[in-house]
Structures are given as C-alpha cells and as structure tokens.
Amino acid sequence: MIIKIKNILLLFLTVSLLGSCGVNSSLMFKTPKGGSFKYDSIPMKPLEEYHITKDDKFNFYLYPNSGEKLIESISGTTVNGENLLYNNNNSVIANFQYIVKGDGFVELPIIGNVKAEGLTLTDFQDSLKAKYSSQYNSPFIKVELTNQRCVIFSGQGSNAKIVPIVNNNTTLMEVIAQAGGIDARGQAKLIKLMRRVNGKREVYLIDLSTIEGLTYTDMIVQGNDYIYIEPKADLAKETVKEIAPIISIISSVFVIVRIIQTVK
C-alpha cells in the first residue's frame, strides 16, 4: 500500500511539473535570451507621416476662396448634435464625420467616391483640393482624423487600454499617464513600443527606470502604436496557482487512502 501511495504521489508530482510549464505563459513579445534580438533605433518623432487606412474616421471641411470666409466665420450654433459654421453668405458648413470604406474609398459630397487608403493627410487634402476645384474657387480643404489611438499594456498583463490620440504631438509620457501609469508589476526598464513603418512593425526598447530615460518621455506617439510594458515574472504566485488544484487532488487521495486503511 505504501508503494502504491508513493507511485500515486510521484505521478501527481510529474503532472504538476508539466503543468508548471504554463507559468507566466500570458507574457507577450518575449525576446530571445542572450541579447540576439536587435531593437530598432528610437525615433523621437515619427519617421513618416501617418497613412490613412480602412475604417479611419475623419472630419472634412471645405472653404472657398482659399479659406477667406473661414477667418470671418462665426461659430456656436448646434443642430441635432452637429456643430455648424456660418460664413458671411449664410451658407452652412456642417462638421460631419466620414468613414473610409473597406475598399479604401470614402464618399464625399458632390464628388462622390474618392480614394483615401494609403494616402497621408497632406496628399489626401491635395487630392480633394484638385477635385473640388472644378466646383469651388480656390477651395481650402482641411481633414482631421478622429479615430487615432494606440494600445498600451501598463504592466499587469491583462490590464490593457486603448488610448485616443487627440493631437499630433501626444508624447509617450502622456499616453502612459492616460493609461494610469506603470503597474506595480510593470518594468519601467522594459517598455517596448511597436510601430508600423513601411509595412512592417519596428520594435523600440525604451528604459524609463533612470533619469536618463527622461529623454524618451517626449517621444511622439503615432496612431496604431503598440506600447507593451513588460511585467515581472511572478513565479511563486503563478506556480502556486498552477499546482493548487493538483495539490488538492493529492490531499484528497491521501484522505481516501487513509479511510480505506482505517476501514480495513
């Protein structure tokens, strides 16, 4: 009977060791040990302008005569939730929102479907200016993206947030602050920022654990950036969590064996 108990114990210990392989398995974006992974050079400003993509949302404004009436416009009226601008001719320009469709086109007043995907804001505005020139005299075009955001994991693993980017000069420190700061498990020396550049993701390693890292707090964050603050590996807690059910089963087995022995 003692031999059987030892065999059962050995079996459950083996299972528990195999189960412990899942400890901290939720950690993402791990790099190979030994420093073989080469991070990209950290840019303080985006290396290229943002390119419009599918499902992007934007506000679109058009003013004729090179925007002359824009300077003279009077704002402050709202109808059905829309902010309206009136120029001196009492014509209304509404602040409507447009969405880039799955085919990369967006439907705009008068000119209809226009290609938007893949263009920078500057190129898109120039394209609209050329198209509206046949309808308006020297049109002034302004496009504002309204769905710019980045994803940040603050160091808790499951604690992720989508942070809207409300202006083009939003810094890394501002995004971290909006996400609630770095979690207690987060490692300030292991902040990985992943950005799409020329069709692929570049990975930047940022260390904010020392005063020297102050330089990188002013790094400009771009739309669709991923910011991953790597959490500390909590081996003790995770291991206990993994093997707790197994320990419970082992305890139950011993209780049952003990009862059997007592009955005999």
Radius of gyration: 29 Å
Q: Could you tell me the mean pLDDT?
A: 78
Morphology call:
elongated
Q: What is the name of the CATH class of the largest domain? A: Alpha Beta
What is the count of β-strands?
A: 13
Give the name of the CATH architecture of the largest domain: Roll
User: Roughly how much helix do the residues carry, as a percent range?
Assistant: 25-40%
Characterize the biggest β-sheet: 5 strands, mixed
Rounded to the nearest angstrom, the distance between the terminal CA atoms is 12 Å
How much of the sequence lies in strands comes to 25-35%
What order do the strands of the largest sheet run in, or round the barrel if closed? 10-9-13-11-12
**Fold-level CATH name of the largest domain:** Outer membrane lipoprotein wza fold like
- Order of H and E elements: HEHEEEEEEHEEEHEEEH
Per CATH, the superfamily of the largest domain is: Outer membrane lipoprotein wza domain like
Count of discrete domains: 2
Low-confidence stretches are: 74-94
SS-based class? alpha+beta
Keywords:
264 residues, 5 helices, wza like fold, 5-stranded mixed β-sheet, 2 domains, alpha+beta
Plain-language structure description:
The protein folds into 2 domains: 26-48 and 148-247, Outer membrane lipoprotein wza domain like (Outer membrane lipoprotein wza fold like, Roll), CATH 3.10.560; 57-145, wza like fold, CATH 3.30.1950. It contains 5 helices and 13 strands. Mean pLDDT is 78; it is low at 74-94. The strands form 4 sheets. It has a 5-stranded mixed β-sheet, with helices on one face. Strands 5-1-8 form a 3-stranded antiparallel β-sheet. Strands 2-3-4 form a 3-stranded antiparallel β-sheet, with no helix packed on it. It is elongated and about 100 Å long. By secondary structure, it is an alpha+beta fold. The protein has helices at residues 2-19, 68-72, 121-132, 172-178, 235-263, and strands spanning 57-63, 74-79, 82-86, 92-94, 97-99, 105-108, 112-115, 140-145, 149-153, 160-164, 186-197, 200-206, 226-231.
